[in-house]
Each structure stands twice: as C-alpha cells, then as structure tokens.
C-alpha cells in the first residue's frame, strides 16, 4: 500500500499537510464555535453592548437629516412641478399613475444625488476612514490571528491560486504573515475542476512553503451556497481566529490594507465588520473597462457618501471585508425563509442580512472607502452581468421577507429597501414610459370637454405646458447626472488620480464616452432587470452558475438570440411613439436607439478589441492601469507564471500523478455512516466502474455527478486503482 496515501488518509481531519507527528494535513486542528440560527421574530441577545456604538461618528443625526431631508424636499418640489405638467386642467387616471411613478422614481435619484453631495464633501476633506485607520505610515502591530477565506465555486483554479499567491506574498512583505492563515473553501461541483484545485493547492504550498498556513477544504454538498460555506468554516475552525477576512474568487487585497483594518478591529472591540471599497481592475473588454472606469471615478464619491451618513450602520457587500468571528457566529446564523423558492428557502443575498443582524445584536458595521488596496474584477459583457444580476435580483427581492425582522436598525431596513428598489425601479421606469405614450395617445384621440357639467362663461381648455415639461425634464436629468459631474470635479482635486486617468481632458472625454454608451445600454438593462423581476414573481429560481471571468468573446449568433427581443421591442415602441406624434418619438429617441441597436451594442461592448482600442486612445483609463500597485503586479506575475493549460480530465490527472492521488485520498470526506443519506450517483458510479475494463472506458461511461461521487469515495478510488493495475494500494 502507498504509505503516503494511507498515512494521510488515516490522519487527523483526513488532511494532507504537516501535522504534529510529521504526517500531512490539508486542514489545521478544528476549533469549533457555536453558530446558532437566528430568529427573525425575536429580539437578539446583545450581551450588554450599547445601543449606540461608541464608534458612531459625530453629528450623524444631522448628516442623515441633511441627506434624507434634502432628498424629500427635492422630491416634493419635483412632484409639484410634474403635477403642473400633467394635471393642470384636471386629474385623470393616467395622469395620477404617471405622477405616482414619477414621484417614486424621482425620490430614488434625489436620494442618490444628496448622498453624492455628502460624498463630495467627504472626498474633498480626504475622509472615508475613521476608526483610527491611516492610509500611510508605519504598519501597526497585531496581537490576534486572522483567517483569509477564499470561497470558490467551479472557478479557474489557476486564477484563484494566482490571486492567493499574490496576497500571500504581499502579506509576507508586511512582516505580519505569522498573524494570518489562508483557507481555500471549495464548493466546486465539477470533478475536473475539483482535482485541478487540489493540484493547484499543492503547487501553491510548494511554491510558498506555506504548509503551516495555507489550507484547503471541499464540501461534498454545497448547502446554502457561499453563506453555508462560510458558516461551516466558522463552526469548525472559527474558535481559533479573532477575525476572518472574506474574499471572492476574483478578490485581491494588499497586505498593508489587511493589516490596517485588522488592527482597527483589535483597537475597537465593539466593531463587528469593516468593509473596504473594492476597485474594479483587469478589465479588457469595452464593457469591463466602462465598469472599472465608472467604479474608479464615480465609485469613491458614492461610497464616501454612503459612509458619510451611514456611520456605524454600514453595509456588507460579501467580500473584501474583515469580520469579527465572534460577532458573526453570535448573530449571523441565517434562517431559512418560509415558503417555496424563489422567495423562500435559504437567503441568497446573505451579506446585507448578515450585516443587519450583527448591527441588530449591538455590533458596529463600518465602511472605510478611503483606504486603498482592495480590488475585484467585473464580468466581461452585458450578458455575463445579466446572469449574475438575475441571482442578485432574486436575493434582493427575498429581503421583502426579512425587512420586517424584529429589532433591526432603521438604517439596516433602509439598506434592504434600497436593494429591493434597485431592481423594482426597472419595471417602474418601463411603466412610466408606456404610461407616457398612453397619455399622448389619449390626448390625441379623446374628445375634450370644453365646458363640462358646470356652467361657466369660459371654456376649460385642455392644457399641457410644453415649456414646463421641458423644465422638469432638464431638472430631472441634471439631478441624475450631477453625481458624475461631482465625481469628475473631485478627480480634478486629486493630482495622482487625475494623472492616472490620462489627465483632465482625457478623463472628461472618458466620462462622456462612458455616459453616452452607458445611456444606450441603460434601456436594455432596464428590460433585462424587468424580465428578471417578472420571472421571479412567476416563481422561477435563478439557480447557481459559476461566473465567467475571462474576456472570451460571445459568439455573434448567441448575441442575436439573446437580444433580438429587445430590438423588436424597441421597433414596436418606436412605431407606437411615431404614430402618436413626432415630438413624442423624438423625446423617446435615446431609449429607442439603445433598444433598436441592442444586438450590435451588446456585441461591441463585449469586444476585447474595442476595449483595447480605447485603451490605446487613452480613454477609460484608471490609475491602477497606468501605475499598477504592488499587489496587482504580484497577481499579474503569478498569473503569467501559472500553467496555461486547464480543463484536464480528473481521473486521468489522478492516475498519472501518484502524489496528487495520495493527497486527494487524504482529503476525502468521512465515509458514510449507518443512517446517513444514500447517494444514488455513487452506487451507479461504482457499478459502472465494476463493469469498465479500463480507466478510459470509465471516463466515457461516468456522468459528471457520478464521477464526482466516485472520486469522493475510498471505494471508488480503490476501483479506479484496480482498473489502472498500478498497484498503488498493493
């Protein structure tokens, strides 16, 4: 028998890494922590923590009154002016409907505008930090242990490990590496990707010498998705770590940034979570480059505004944040929502809810958008972001069942309502447009009542003031676009960022390009989100698909199949507008253009060539491209050094590499016990192996789920070894 494989297989945890007795283990000793499921109808235990955190910034009531009060006054003024446009000659059903929709939508953009004003003030004052965090200067010392958690689900193992390698080396450069451990938490279901993950994990350990602090665990059943993945780690290992840093598969964080926010957690025992602002990087397609430019230029203004008036009632975006493990375990055990999917079941957008529950339990939740060194990537195309957005849409709409949770802070409820609103506003915009056409149609074909039922010397002339309508339109567009202008002005006051974006002129041109193309994409995105909302209301679950992160182009015919319906809708809408009146058609031209040209627009924005052409022209530049920080250079070098070939067949990889087979065997989950559920895929897979004359036949016969079950079983590995006839276990 292979001694390495057998000793690892029978070692503690079934692990493969250096253990106390010289064996190999993939995981450290377990240090369990209780994480109870929370009740949404009962008040939580706060253990004497104050209702108002001591880290709450000063004048927070005044800040919130300024932002929300100003937005309310703007909305009231907009409603008054719109009412003059629509109902100056008397109320009608359609007029009231359009007015209500206008008020709801106007309040949405008014709040974004007033929040952006707060962000503008914060940016000019170089705010966005707090908690004693400094952007520069000597790094603080650390006294506790922190776990960096990298959940992954059917992602490219090479990309994941390259990012983790960059973070490991960046952390080592800070001199604080001994305070951190790294966990790859796999929920991968594809057996080929799973085995590649294990090979990449072993290679990462070998390259870094990090056997004692780099760990790997795969869950055989990915219950409750990412939230369940993190919760399972907390229950098994959380007791050994004061903090955990949650990441996504595309996350990068500089070592110095991590050290600073962990030190802030140590200094402030009442803080439960600190969220950084992840900047989007590494975009190559036109769509991804637009996303990263918008995130880099407009994102800080928006995030500073949110942090400015949210204070210690901040939010959590699910990654690039440090969390106090005790606070998470104590308060963030998520219950299943009552009812059937898509509204019932486990909570998809778990991050908002976890933050709200921790704040409900007396823990402060802070955002520090002024701290650099936190990064993520964008989906490469509108199609890819629509797939992700469909899942987010379902998760946010689920919050309708959570927003009434007993004891939530009102700001936490507002987070959830705004999340719901970010998707509900799309069908509202569509209804607003359609109702506007109906009003124009009604005014054309309805016979006016000049005198009505009352006696009067003067007729009641129908009246819609075109000048007033134009004024309302200009004011609305000004409030909608003002945050972009404020972000550009703030950029001018930051010399380094201004130079990194190509200078004042190129940055202005980039804002113009992003605004024009984004304006054309907006109607298509509106319909995509509207269809997502409708499908959820009809009971369709979004599922869980791995996100595409490369810049591979979308085939043109696939784009045609995905977007022809939006083009057709644009043509029909344009025809209706033209038949009503030419001025209405001209007024709707920006919306119609985006819809009619949906197919070429989707194709062009997903093009890498188009993105690189603008890069060569010096447009849509961000500082992280023109002068990459250390962590991005490390990640690029690690990506360049990794093997290009991926997508190997799992059985072939294992049988060709005895060391990998031994490690894989070592990391098997515990065998099924009496009374445990029976896995039909395993039974069928073992039978197919028994009937296969050689490994190649087994590969052809096994379905993906059967192969995963076989590779997760000692019996399955033994039968594969017997097929190979190599005597691995002889």
Strand content: 5-15%
Main β-sheet, in a few words?
Answer: 7 strands, mixed
CATH architectural grouping of the domain at 146-385: Alpha-Beta Complex
Q: Can you tell me the CATH class of the domain at 146-385? A: Alpha Beta
State the low-pLDDT regions, or none. Answer: 1-22, 456-463, 726-730
Number of strands: 10
The residue fraction in helices comes out at: 55-70%
Instruction: Give the radius of gyration.
Output: 28 Å
Order of strands across the biggest sheet?
A: 3-2-1-4-8-6-9
List the total number of helices. 29
Family: Belongs to the glycosyltransferase 2 family. OpgH subfamily.
Pfam family, one: Glyco_trans_2_3
Protein name: Glucans biosynthesis glucosyltransferase H
Pathway: Glycan metabolism; osmoregulated periplasmic glucan (OPG) biosynthesis
In a nutshell, what does this entry contain?
This protein is an alpha/beta fold and 730 residues long.
List keywords for this structure.
Glycosyltr_2/OpgH_subfam, single chain, 6% strand, disordered C terminus, seven-stranded mixed β-sheet, membrane, transmembrane, hexosyltransferase activity, Spore Coat Polysaccharide Biosynthesis Protein SpsA, Chain A, 29 helices, alpha/beta
Structural write-up:
With 730 residues, the chain is of the alpha/beta class. Among the domains are: 146-385, Spore Coat Polysaccharide Biosynthesis Protein SpsA, Chain A (Alpha-Beta Complex); 650-669 and 677-727, no CATH class. The protein has 29 helices and 10 strands. The strands form 2 sheets. Strands 3-2-1-4-8-6-9 form a 7-stranded mixed sheet, sandwiched between helices. The model is unreliable at 1-22, 456-463 and 726-730 (pLDDT under 50).
């Amino acid at each position: 028998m292979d001694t390495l494989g057998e000793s690892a297989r029978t070692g503690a945890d079934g692990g493969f890494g250096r253990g106390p007795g010289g064996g190999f283990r993939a995981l450290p000793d377990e240090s369990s922590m209780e994480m109870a499921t929370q009740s949404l109808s009962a008040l939580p235990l706060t253990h004497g923590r104050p209702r108002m955190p001591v880290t709450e910034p000063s004048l927070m009531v005044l800040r919130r009154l300024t932002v929300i009060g100003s937005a309310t006054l703007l909305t009231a003024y907009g409603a008054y002016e719109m009412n003059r446009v629509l109902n100056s000659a008397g109320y009608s059903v359609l007029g009231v409907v359009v007015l209500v929709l206008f008020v709801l939508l106007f309040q949405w953009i008014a709040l974004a505008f007033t929040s952006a004003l707060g962000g503008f003030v914060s940016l000019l004052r170089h705010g966005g930090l707090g908690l004693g965090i400094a952007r520069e200067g000597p790094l603080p010392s650390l006294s506790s242990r922190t776990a960096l958690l990298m959940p992954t689900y059917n992602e490219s193992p090479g990309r994941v490990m390259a990012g983790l390698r960059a973070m490991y080396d960046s952390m080592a450069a800070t001199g604080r590496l001994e305070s951190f451990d790294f966990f790859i938490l796999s929920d991968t279901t594809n057996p080929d990707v799973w085995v590649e993950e294990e090979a990449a994990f072993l290679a990462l350990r070998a390259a870094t010498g990090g056997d004692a602090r780099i760990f790997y665990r795969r869950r055989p059943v990915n219950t409750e998705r990412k939230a369940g993945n993190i919760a399972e780690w907390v229950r098994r290992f959380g007791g050994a770590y004061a903090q955990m840093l949650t990441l996504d598969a595309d996350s990068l964080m500089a070592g110095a940034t991590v050290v600073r926010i962990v030190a802030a957690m140590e200094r402030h025992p009442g803080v439960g979570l600190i969220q950084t602002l992840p900047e989007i990087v590494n975009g190559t397609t036109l769509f991804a480059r637009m996303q990263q430019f918008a995130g880099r230029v407009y994102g800080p203004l928006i995030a500073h505004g949110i942090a400015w008036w949210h204070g210690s009632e901040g939010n959590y975006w699910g990654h690039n944040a440090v969390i106090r493990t005790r606070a998470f375990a104590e308060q963030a055990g998520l219950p299943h929502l009552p009812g059937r999917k898509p509204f019932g079941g486990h909570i998809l957008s778990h991050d908002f809810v976890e933050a709200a529950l921790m704040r409900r339990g007396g823990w402060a939740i802070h955002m520090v958008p002024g701290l650099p060194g936190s990064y993520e990537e964008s989906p490469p195309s509108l199609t890819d972001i629509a797939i992700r957005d469909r899942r987010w849409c379902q998760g946010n709409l689920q919050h309708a069942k959570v927003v009434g949770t007993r004891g939530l802070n009102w700001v936490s409820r507002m987070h959830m309502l705004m999340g719901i609103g970010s998707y509900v506003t799309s069908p509202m915009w569509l209804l607003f447009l359609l109702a506007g056409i109906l009003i124009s149609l009604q005014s054309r074909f309805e016979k006016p009542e000049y005198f009505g039922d009352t006696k009067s010397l003067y007729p009641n002339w129908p009246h819609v003031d075109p000048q007033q309508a134009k004024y309302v339109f200009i004011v609305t567009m000004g409030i909608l676009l003002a945050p972009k202008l404020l972000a550009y002005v703030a950029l001018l006051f930051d010399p380094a960022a201004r130079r990194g974006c190509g200078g004042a002129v190129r940055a202005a041109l980039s804002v113009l390009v992003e605004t024009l193309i984004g304006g054309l994409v907006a109607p298509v995105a509106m319909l995509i989100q509207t269809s997502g909302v409708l499908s959820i209301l009809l009971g369709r679950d979004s599922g869980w698909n791995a996100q595409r992160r490369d810049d591979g182009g979308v085939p043109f015919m696939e784009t045609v199949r995905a977007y022809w319906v939006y083009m057709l809708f644009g043509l029909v809408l344009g025809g209706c507008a033209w038949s009503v009146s030419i001025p209405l058609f001209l007024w709707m031209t920006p919306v119609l253009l985006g819809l009619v040209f949906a197919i070429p627009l989707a194709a062009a924005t997903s093009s890498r060539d188009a993105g690189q052409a603008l890069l060569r022209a010096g447009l849509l530049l961000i500082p992280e491209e023109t002068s990459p920080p250390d962590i991005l250079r490390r990640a690029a070098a690690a990506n360049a050094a990794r093997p290009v070939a991926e997508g190997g067949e799992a059985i072939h990889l294992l049988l060709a590499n005895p060391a990998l087979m031994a490690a894989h065997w070592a990391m098997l989950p515990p065998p099924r016990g009496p009374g445990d559920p029976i896995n039909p895929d395993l039974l069928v897979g073992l039978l197919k192996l028994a009937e296969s004359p050689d490994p190649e036949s087994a590969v052809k016969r096994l379905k993906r789920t059967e192969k995963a079950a076989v590779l997760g079983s000692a019996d399955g590995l033994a039968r594969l070894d017997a097929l190979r006839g190599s005597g691995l276990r002889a």
